[in-house]
Amino acid sequence: MAEASAAAPPPVDKKGSVLSRAVVPVVVVAVVLLASGVLSQLVTPFIRRDDWPFLLPQGAPGLADPMNKVRQEGRWLSYGWWLGVGQHGSPVTAVVVMFSAYVLFVVGLWRLFDARGRVAGALLGLALLLSPLWIRLIYWPGTLSASAIVAAAGVWTLPSAARHRGRLAAWVVVTTILSVLTYPPVGSLLLIAAAVHLRHRPWKHVLLLCATFLAGFALAVVLSFGLGRIAFGQFGVTIAGWRNPNPLASLDDLVVNGGRYLRQLLVLGSTLRWSALVAVVAVVVGLVDPRVRPTLLRVGAAVAVVAGLECAQTLATGVRTNVRGSGWAWLALVVPAALLLAGHPWSRRAGQVALAALALLGLLAWRTDLSTHQATRATYAEIVTTASRSGNEVVFYQRPEERRTSRGQITEGALRAMFYEYAGVVVRWCRPAECAELAPLAGQGAVHDLGPMTGVVVPPPPKVL
């Protein structure tokens, strides 16, 4: 009985609630724009090599067919977005759309919590927004804009859908299918958001939510594979070789894939180590506080489901998820601190301290990641400007040991796309005699005058890719 009464939602300060919905989000977004460095990415975006096919028209020189992403990952709606929108815009419009949709998602999630007062609301908003994992996705705006829109639309329609059990089940299935057809990790974010919204309801509602999500995910996979059968004659996806797949077929495969997932967790833990420590403290405080414990456990069940699903995918395919694809992990760290805001006074104070720490760690991660990529973009932009100024034909030379690696190919592909997008220059590889002339110049600058043509020595891959 005590737990049931403790699960009832606390009274909400209407004045603080209105203020949180109106003024505080605007201030928080403004602070992030000015303090994190993301404004430079919005104005002069750095685009990763494999996102360029979703920003330029089909047939652009040196770019892969966007349909390859569909064949390898089943992102049918992302392809549809490219057909209707992506190829007709620019890198700037793409990254602005993606960032705006992400902000809308965060604000929609933000309003599901009980944050009383401007300070608590601002800290919660900052902690939710400044995800060190999400910022690593901002360099793929062409590929991921559609998924960000799905996330935003999903979280804003959640409260209305949750008023009726049937409508909520339909919401879960539809948003999960849309997520799988754009970017599957979005479905995990929406499940956690739904668990936050249902945290005061009985356990059976939360468990039914999780079961419906898993059923919706399975249905989405079947739908994606079925579309692949129609389009490519193969039921399933063709996982790219560079992902080093290892389909589960034996006990030995299970051992190998289990080791890969363990390494995946170690990388994720290393990326979030200090934030995870803050979250552990918040979890302990939440378990001690009887007002917070029931809600914390209910949301924790959803987190366990999405973590288990990610583990199952690695065990089944052998493909490790990059940390940027584990966006659920940041919510798993922020949500416990956010739930403390509805607890006893000492819990609320602990929650505010934890959210402040998470926001600060997120801000530092954003500044580091964005400044590193912007420095790389500035270097590439200078090469493009200098090499194209003469109007001569531009040829590439790249050290053979770098050209054979995926990191070297990523560097060359990004630079080639920038030449085409920003200077209208179609670059070709150097011929043997030209390569022999450029090889001794490697390490002596990137741009070299070869008389009738301009030679560009592709710079070494940056440390962060």
Describe this entry's structure for a reader.
It is a single chain. This protein is mainly α and 465 residues long. It is 66% helix and 3% strand. It contains 19 helices and 4 strands. The protein has helices at 2-6, 14-35, 38-43, 67-73, 76-84, 91-110, 118-129, 141-161, 165-180, 185-197, 203-232, 251-271, 273-288, 293-317, 328-339, 345-388, 400-403, 406-423, 432-438, and strands spanning 393-397, 428-429, 447-449, 453-457. A 4-stranded mixed β-sheet has the order 2-1-4-3, with helices on both faces. Residues 1-8 have low confidence and may be disordered.
Secondary-structure blueprint:
Blueprint: H1 2-6, H2 14-35, H3 38-43, H4 67-73, H5 76-84, H6 91-110, H7 118-129, H8 141-161, H9 165-180, H10 185-197, H11 203-232, H12 251-271, H13 273-288, H14 293-317, H15 328-339, H16 345-388, E1 393-397, H17 400-403, H18 406-423, E2 428-429, H19 432-438, E3 447-449, E4 453-457
Parallel strand pairs: 1-2, 1-4
Antiparallel strand pairs: 3-4
Helix pairs in contact: 2-7, 5-8, 6-7, 6-8, 7-16, 8-9, 8-10, 9-10, 9-11, 10-11, 10-14, 10-15, 11-14, 12-14, 13-14, 13-15, 13-16, 14-15, 15-16, 16-18
Task: Identify the notable features of this structure and list them briefly.
465 residues; mainly alpha; four-stranded mixed β-sheet; 19 helices; 66% helix
